[in-house]
């Protein structure tokens, strides 16, 4: 997983708890907001973001785990190790589709209206999953035009994606850069996937470092606030922090976040299993001081998990909270049904060919047409014929829909729909729409899927 | 000529994003390579793309069930599975403290 605001290397709960006060004690190393060289735009972006400044704590953020794939391997991460310590930062156990991700944002926003930051940090590298990441951010911005969008990345795929990120409105970017020397990098990154090849050793690190710095420069030039995360690894990059900070400053990074390596062997990482030790608190303070002459230091980082929700330091467990759970087998007053139809009379269209869906709200005693929803309006750029992003657009077009009726549908979209909680059906292929909807209504009545009005109104 | 995906797969979706043949399918039961679509990337790239990005050793195998990324080739930890099994066991014995996590329904 990517080192997000903390990634795989990072924090046990114990390490995170030390952050509370350090915001003050290290204040002199932090960003000086009175610095005349900072524009007022930058100052407001910093102070309203919980991860960037201690003042930002009154705001809240949500990280949406929509990006599973990664394009590099770090020695402080084990991709398959998710079970023994689930609250390990940078690790999320449950993935969300872009549509579900946005749904989660909307629900959290209802409960915590101060949620003003939507971030994508993993569980892999967001930019190794560009379609899912961009679709999610775009949809979140559509829900709430004031939201800050942020992305955390290892930087390998950043350079080419800067324009797309700017286009969807990403204002805050975090790049994890652990070194600028390929010999050091070779001890941290066993391989990267770049340009259709798996590269290893120094060659891999050199490519990664070059791309990170080029991406950093481009992102700064494009007006993003760029924070750099560095995992402090004793004996590997600790002597190198000052040189690194100098380079970061040169390329225009705004903030530097030095995070202690977490190398608990129970996490199954290379460092953990080979006895690489974690830095002491003093070593972390020393590194921050060494970097501090060049880079403003961030010292209140809680090293969030990629699915963090809420105010820093008081994450909310969505699983424990009924109201945010996806509706399963629950009853409702009415259901939204989408129909793939060309003729507007018969259910006569293949799901994959539908450019729009006709919507109907089915109540216990009536069926109301709700107009049509276009799929294309949910497309990211022109990538809509890419299967992956087309499916994401479809899912967004079907937001809130409980069932889709179509003439035919492929296996893959069927499964994707099911996973997103939408029930596809070809049972009514080539039926008259009204007839099919009545039959469905009848079926649901028999299954007791409609609630008595009185029973569920407080669920809002 | 086709590769396949084993139960070692963690479902990170990376292979699916890079396969030039769109040969990789995923479902609730896991990831698989559609045999008739996979051409081992011949004509597209020098290396099979799925096996070049997959982070998990032994997750992708050839017809003879030889792992394209054999144990130790990606993590540098030859006995990683064993070591992990052991550390998990140790964590269990010492009493897992992260048990507060609700399993999802
Ligand atoms: S070898 Fe190539 S064509 Fe076959 S599944 Fe892997 S990426 Fe796709
Ligand atoms: S890249 Fe490997 S681990 Fe990831 S989904 Fe594909 S086969 Fe599974």
TrEMBL record, chain A:
<keyword id="KW-0479">Metal-binding</keyword>
<keyword id="KW-0535">Nitrogen fixation</keyword>
<feature type="domain" description="Radical SAM core">
    <location>
        <begin position="52"/>
        <end position="302"/>
    </location>
</feature>
<dbReference type="InterPro" id="IPR000385">
    <property type="entry name" value="MoaA_NifB_PqqE_Fe-S-bd_CS"/>
</dbReference>
<keyword id="KW-0949">S-adenosyl-L-methionine</keyword>
<keyword id="KW-0411">Iron-sulfur</keyword>
<comment type="pathway">
    <text>Cofactor biosynthesis; Fe-Mo cofactor biosynthesis.</text>
</comment>
<dbReference type="InterPro" id="IPR003731">
    <property type="entry name" value="Di-Nase_FeMo-co_biosynth"/>
</dbReference>
<comment type="similarity">
    <text>Belongs to the radical SAM superfamily. NifB family.</text>
</comment>
<protein>
    <submittedName>
        <fullName>Nitrogenase cofactor biosynthesis protein NifB</fullName>
    </submittedName>
</protein>
<dbReference type="Pfam" id="PF02579">
    <property type="entry name" value="Nitro_FeMo-Co"/>
</dbReference>
<keyword id="KW-0408">Iron</keyword>
<dbReference type="InterPro" id="IPR058240">
    <property type="entry name" value="rSAM_sf"/>
</dbReference>
<dbReference type="InterPro" id="IPR013785">
    <property type="entry name" value="Aldolase_TIM"/>
</dbReference>
<keyword id="KW-0004">4Fe-4S</keyword>
<dbReference type="InterPro" id="IPR036105">
    <property type="entry name" value="DiNase_FeMo-co_biosyn_sf"/>
</dbReference>
<dbReference type="Pfam" id="PF04055">
    <property type="entry name" value="Radical_SAM"/>
</dbReference>
<keyword id="KW-0456">Lyase</keyword>
<dbReference type="InterPro" id="IPR007197">
    <property type="entry name" value="rSAM"/>
</dbReference>
<dbReference type="InterPro" id="IPR005980">
    <property type="entry name" value="Nase_CF_NifB"/>
</dbReference>
UniProtKB/TrEMBL annotation, chain B:
<feature type="domain" description="4Fe-4S ferredoxin-type">
    <location>
        <begin position="1"/>
        <end position="29"/>
    </location>
</feature>
<dbReference type="Pfam" id="PF00037">
    <property type="entry name" value="Fer4"/>
</dbReference>
<protein>
    <submittedName>
        <fullName>4Fe-4S binding protein</fullName>
    </submittedName>
</protein>
<keyword id="KW-0479">Metal-binding</keyword>
<keyword id="KW-0408">Iron</keyword>
<keyword id="KW-0411">Iron-sulfur</keyword>
<dbReference type="InterPro" id="IPR017900">
    <property type="entry name" value="4Fe4S_Fe_S_CS"/>
</dbReference>
<dbReference type="InterPro" id="IPR017896">
    <property type="entry name" value="4Fe4S_Fe-S-bd"/>
</dbReference>
């Amino acid at each position: 997983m990517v080192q997000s605001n903390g990634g795989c290397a990072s924090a046990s709960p114990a390490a995170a708890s030390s952050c509370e006060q350090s915001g003050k004690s290290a204040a002199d190393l932090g960003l000086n907001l009175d610095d005349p060289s900072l524009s007022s735009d930058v100052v407001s972006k910093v102070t309203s973001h919980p991860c960037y400044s201690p003042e930002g704590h009154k705001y809240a953020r949500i990280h949406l785990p929509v990006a599973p794939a990664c394009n590099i391997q770090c020695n402080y991460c084990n991709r398959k190790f998710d079970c023994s310590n689930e609250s390990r930062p940078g690790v999320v156990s449950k993935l969300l589709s872009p549509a579900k991700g946005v749904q989660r944002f909307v629900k959290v926003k209802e409960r915590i209206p101060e949620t003003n930051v939507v971030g994508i940090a993993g569980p892999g590298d967001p930019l190794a999953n560009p379609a899912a990441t961009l679709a999610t951010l775009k949809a979140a911005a559509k829900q709430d035009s004031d939201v800050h969008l942020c992305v955390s990345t290892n930087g390998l795929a950043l350079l080419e994606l800067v324009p797309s990120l700017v286009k969807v409105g990403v204002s805050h970017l975090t790049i994890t850069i652990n070194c600028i020397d390929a010999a050091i990098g070779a001890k941290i990154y066993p391989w990267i996937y770049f340009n259709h090849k798996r590269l290893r050793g120094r060659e891999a690190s050199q490519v990664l470092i070059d791309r990170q710095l080029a991406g950093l420069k481009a992102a700064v030039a494009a007006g993003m606030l760029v924070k750099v995360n560095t995992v402090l690894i004793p004996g590997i990059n600790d002597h190198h922090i000052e040189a690194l900070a100098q380079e970061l400053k040169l390329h225009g990074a705004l903030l530097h976040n030095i995070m202690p390596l977490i190398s608990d062997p129970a996490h199954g990482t290379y460092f953990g299993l080979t006895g690489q030790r974690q830095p002491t608190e003093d070593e972390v303070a020393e590194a921050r001081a060494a970097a501090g002459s060049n880079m403003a230091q961030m010292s209140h980082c809680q090293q969030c998990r990629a699915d963090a929700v809420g105010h820093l330091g008081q994450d909310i467990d969505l699983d424990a909270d009924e109201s945010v759970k996806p509706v399963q087998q629950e009853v409702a007053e009415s259901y939204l049904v989408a129909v793939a139809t060309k003729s507007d009379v018969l259910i006569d269209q293949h799901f994959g060919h539908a450019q729009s869906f006709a919507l109907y709200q089915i109540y216990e005693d009536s069926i109301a047409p709700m107009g049509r929803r276009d799929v294309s309006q949910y497309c990211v750029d022109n990538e809509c014929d890419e299967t992956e992003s087309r499916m994401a657009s479809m899912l967004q077009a079907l937001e809130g829909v409980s069932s889709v009726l179509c003439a035919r549908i492929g296996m893959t979209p069927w499964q994707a729909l099911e996973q997103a909680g939408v029930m596809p059906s070809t049972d009514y292929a080539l039926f008259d729409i009204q007839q099919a909807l009545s039959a469905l209504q009848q079926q649901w009545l028999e299954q007791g899927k409609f609630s008595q009005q009185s029973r569920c109104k407080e669920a809002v | 000529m086709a590769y396949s995906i084993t139960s070692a797969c963690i479902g990170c979706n990376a292979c699916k994003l890079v396969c030039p043949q769109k040969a990789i399918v995923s479902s609730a039961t896991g990831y698989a390579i559609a045999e008739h679509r996979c051409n081992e990337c011949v004509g597209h790239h020098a290396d099979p793309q799925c096996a070049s990005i997959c982070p998990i050793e032994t997750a992708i195998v050839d017809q003879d069930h030889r792992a394209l990324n054999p144990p130790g080739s990606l993590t540098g930890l030859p006995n990683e599975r064993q070591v992990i099994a052991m550390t998990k066991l140790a964590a269990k014995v010492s009493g897992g403290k992260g048990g507060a996590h609700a399993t999802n329904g």
